[in-house]
Design goal:
It is built from six helices and 16 strands. It is of the alpha+beta class. It has a seven-stranded antiparallel β-sheet with strand order 3-2-1-4-5-6-7, with helices on one face. Strands 8, 9, 12, 13 and 14 form a five-stranded antiparallel β-sheet that branches. β5 and β6 (142-148) form a beta hairpin. Residues 197-291 form the Ig-like domain. The chain crosses the membrane at residues 302-324.
């Protein structure tokens, strides 16, 4: 159970990395990991575009994934060969980072049973045509080193990472390769891989609004499901089309490969029916947006009036009881 949960987290993180919250952005990411004690392959590498796996390899596989049929250009085949070759290089440098981190954090003996070292590198293409690339390494989920592209150096996040950081920075050829990769190669690769058939698939969100009565208020939830790809934006607009703050859940996977999320807003009972509340969904499968207006359910209005009636009855009952008690006290005198 533990290993399955951890592996699910890796898949989820791989899908989310570098999204920057923009449904229209494209994110080419590579996730590399070396682990011990998690019932995972000793080494794994996954390349994703948004949430679509383009390339996967791990230490249990005898060979690397062959070039897919849709990648039939000379440039595309060069990039695929480069990915295959760099899988061996990535395994070497990540294993070095793992070994250094285990030693520097003194994760030996009994503590050596459960450790993981990860590399996360992404390139984001924004709708305005600009790019952003980054690379970071983590040890047991915490920042270890990161790449400063402008200065062409690695930066240690903790003192235990200084030794490995210095080892990487001293290798000038490796620094040239890694900075060239995140400045140029990954950008070219993103522009080629964005034409993958699985990346172009779009599924329109289904939107449903439901209510939950609470004391003095109604919680209105906008449930959005069945959409693909994963990136989505859900907002509530209140009176005069002003954004309304509300609780939002993570984007979660459905069994059919699509995704779902929800966002809730709390409306005071006295405002029910007075103002218009709309759920607005932005997704790459639709040109503009999907706007759904909350129509108060009859039972909800009935519940509001019943609540007010109960309060009035309580007040009347309390007043009647007070009068009767006062009369009894006067009679006793």
């Amino acid at each position: 159970m533990r290993s399955s949960f951890v592996f699910f987290l890796y898949l989820l993180r791989g899908a989310c990395s570098g999204s920057d919250g923009d449904p229209e952005s494209l994110n080419l990411c590579i996730h590399i990991a070396v682990s011990r004690g998690f019932n995972l392959p000793e080494f794994l590498q996954r390349t994703t575009l948004n949430d679509v796996t383009i390339f996967y390899h791990d230490s249990t596989m005898a060979s690397k994934m062959p070039c897919p049929d849709w990648l039939n250009s000379i440039a595309g085949q060069w990039h695929w060969k480069h990915i295959q070759n760099w899988a061996d290089r990535n395994r070497r440098v990540i294993t070095q980072g793992f070994t250094s981190a285990v030693q520097q954090f003194n994760r030996t003996g009994l503590l050596a049973d459960s450790n993981i070292y990860e590399g996360w590198g992404c390139c984001t293409l924004f709708p305005n045509g600009t790019y952003r690339s980054w690379l970071t390494h983590k040890f047991n989920g915490k920042d270890f080193i990161s790449l400063d592209l402008n200065k062409r150096v690695f930066v240690a996040a903790v003192s235990e990472a200084v030794l490995y950081k210095n080892q990487r920075c001293r290798d000038e050829r490796d620094m040239d390769d890694i900075t060239d990769y995140y400045r140029k190669v990954i950008i070219d690769r993103l522009n080629i891989f964005k034409n993958a058939p699985s990346v172009r698939i779009r599924k329109v969100p289904e939107v449903r609004i439901f209510e939950k009565q609470k004391a003095g208020s109604i919680t209105v939830t906008c449930h959005v499901t069945g959409f693909y790809p994963r990136a989505v934006q859900v907002d509530w607009l209140g009176p005069d089309l002003h954004p309304v703050d509300g609780g939002v859940t993570d984007v979660l996977p459905n069994e059919d490969g699509t995704y779902q999320t929800r966002r809730s807003v709390t409306v005071p009972e006295e405002d029910v029916g007075k103002h218009t509340y709309s759920c607005v969904v932005l997704h790459s499968s639709v040109e503009h947006n999907i706007t759904t207006v909350w129509v108060v359910e009859k039972r909800s209005r009935f519940a509001v009036w019943m609540s007010l009636a109960c309060i009035c009855l309580l007040i009347i009952g309390f007043g009647f009881w007070s009068c009767c008690r006062s009369n009894d006290l006067r009679n006793q005198k």
